[in-house]
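WARN no homologs supplied; continuing
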Amino acid sequence: MKTSEDIMTVDVKVSNALKEYVICVNEGQDIIFPKKGSLLWSLMKLHLDVVPKSYKPVPPSERQDYIRIALHKSRRTKSYNVNTGRVMEINTLFRNHLGEDGQKAVATHLARGFKQTFRAYMGGALSNNQELTVHDAVYEFCSDYGITMDSITYEMLRKDWYRFSKRCKCNGIIPVERQNM
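OK structure emitted
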């Protein structure tokens, strides 16, 4: 079995809450292994670039805000790029760096996944347990996903849930009147 030192990875800066969530869903590891053909892997391939000359690795003392995403084995893969109208070759042996735009795109994608999980959890918890309050459901979510209240606040999550449920009420998806805030 390969160790994390044998795997080529790309660093992505994320919030502390998102890092705690990723570690929890990845069985204690801060490395995500995207499947070929997945949206995350497609996003990675789109933004992978050669390492710039000005690049300086992140020191271990500052790695608390980073997760790693594993790259697939280095071999040439051909992808059609619609913007340029040509086939591009991507070799992860040379293209193994995410620039600022790539960092933002991947972090945004992961944050959306976090929000989807949170909203689905809240919807299920509140609809399946009539005595459960939003306050208790938020804290249970954080407990179940290993998120400390040092990295995210109850108010942030409550506001996100309230806005989401209000927006969905207009579409007839989630009943808002059951919420006890």
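The longest helix spans residues 100-128.
OK
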